[in-house]
Structures are given as C-alpha cells and as structure tokens.
Amino acid sequence: MKLGAPLADNDTSLYDGLKINLNSIDPSELTWRDPEANMIIADDSVLVKNLGPRQKQFFLKPRENMKCASLSSISSKCNGFINDFNSIGFSDTIRNIVHNKEWKENESKLLECTDRILNTIRGIWNNPAFATSEMRSTQSEGTYVTDIIVPLLRASLEDLPSGAIFLSTAERQSIASKTRRSSSSNEERSIQKNLIGKKPDVMVMTKYRGKVFELTYVESSRVICTKSKKDDDSVKLWRETLDGISFVGNACRPASNQFGIVGIQVAGEELFLNVLIKDASGIPRYFHLDQAEMPFAKNTPWRVEPLVHLLLIFRNTMIVNQNLLMQALEQADARPPRNTQQSPTVTSPLRT
Fold first, then answer.
1. Contact between residue 215 and residue 222 where contact means Cβ atoms under 8 Å apart
2. How many structural domains are present in the chain?
C-alpha cells in the first residue's frame, strides 16, 4: 500500500502514523479478503486502532461529520409507536363501511396515494434493468417482483385508514392453504404427507389479537410469460383465495356479498385484479375487477392512468375488506361461529 502526499499538517501527522503501523503488517499474510490488500484503510483496521488519539480523531472525522445527534422529538415518536403498537384501534369514522361504488377516502388522500404510485413509476422508468424490451426479457421473476410489483403495492397500501397491514415476499407457505391441507381426510394426508401449502409470490396480511389473516395473494411471472404459466397461475390464484376466505370463515362471519379475498395476477406485462367473495348462501363467487398493463418506460404513457386506477381500486377494496374483517372478528369474540367448514378446494394431483 502506498500513501499519497499529505495535504496539510494534520494529514502529515496522520500519514506518518499510518506508515509506522503499515510497517508492522506482513504483505505475504494478506489475502483478497483483507481491506489493506485492496488499498482500503477501514476504521476497524489495526492501522487505525494503533494510531494516537489525535491521529485517530482526524482519520475518523469524515465519518463523524456524517452523524447527527438524535432529536428528542424523534425519540418520543419512536416510544409512542412502541407503546401504541398493541393498542391500535379502528376509527369510528371508517366503521360500518361497505362496497357501494364510492371511494372511502377524500380526494386529497387519493391524490397523495397517486403521487406515491407515480413516484414509484418514475423509479421504474429510471431502472436500466427494465429500460428496453431486450433487458426486460432477461430479468427473473424475482427481480420483476422485487423491483416493480412490490414497490407499486407498497405505494398503494401505505397509510391505510383502516389500520396496519404487512406485505410479505418471504418464501413461506400460505397459512390458509396449510390449514386446508392439514384438515383433509386421513387418506388425503397420507398421500400428501410430504406436501406443503401453496407459496404465493406476495401476500398482504393483517393481524388481530396475535392471529394472522391473509387478505391478498399475488402470483407473478417473468416479463416474458408463456400461456401455460398464465393459465397455471390463474388457477393457483383462485385456489389460494378460496383457501383464504375459508380460513377467515372458521374464525368469523364477515358480511356476505361484501368481504372478499383479493387475488392479483401479473402475467407478463398485464396485471389482473380479482376478488373472491361468498354470497348469502355461502357459495363462493370469483370476480375479475380490473386489469391494466405495466408502464415499463416513458414511451408507454397511455398505460399510466389505467394502472393508477387499478391500484386505487385495490386500495379502496382493501380498506373495506379489512374493516369488514375486523368488525366480524370483534363480533366473533362474543359469539364464535358454529358449524365451521373446511375449504372446498379440491386437492391437486401429485406431480410426477
């Protein structure tokens, strides 16, 4: 390692100290894993640890200049969050709401959400991995989900008035699907003993008194999507939503023809918004709410508004569905549902 020429007296003193410490290092003992072998002086290096107090202080000055003192208001805000986490309730102003063709937030709130979505689209347009059709075709499903799908969903679901939800991309099985499989007949369980529940690409969940409920399932392909992949994901999605609403039905009885489990399918450049509800007789109904195309680049401006509208419809649907669920769960605390039934989802055949 060769040190450059010092620029000031403090630099001279620092560089002298570093040179002395450098002489104590045997270059033959360095490997590619050592910062010193790569011309880097790290703050936890022996080169720095053995400096004098003033020399070390001068070396660390750039680091210290990047730090800021904590504000008491920030500390108070964090403590308030911790104290309030388990006592978050639901505002009376958003109770007793239903799907009735009306937005559940005022225009100002909808514009705030629109700004977040548009800022996310701006980031997509600046992402070189999706700048051209050739580049998009090389991206994996995981990159598509991480860089495009999840940011758009987060932008649309941020700051919901109906309470906190969480969005997961973890490789974990659906709780609802696992419950359905575990409640199947002994014969089915013996056949499926090595099988696990479905693993959606993304799940949107909420928690009530420690119990997790899955409100949305997302299945995605790569940007280049085959017909078989699109068809398979479509089937997988309505099966997941059926398991999801059956899982909810074992815990409470949300309003029929209102509460539903949302399914979002991303097939290539298309995005489909679906929902599964139960009618008054308990018969599941699956609806295709909306669809839009992904505006990967600024040369497809006509795709922007339809996508924003779809995501706002998704947000509005989630506000109502979450409130319907919470009200039903509160009622179930006093009167638990009777005659619960397992999911009617037909078990898929074993793959060979």
1. no
2. 2
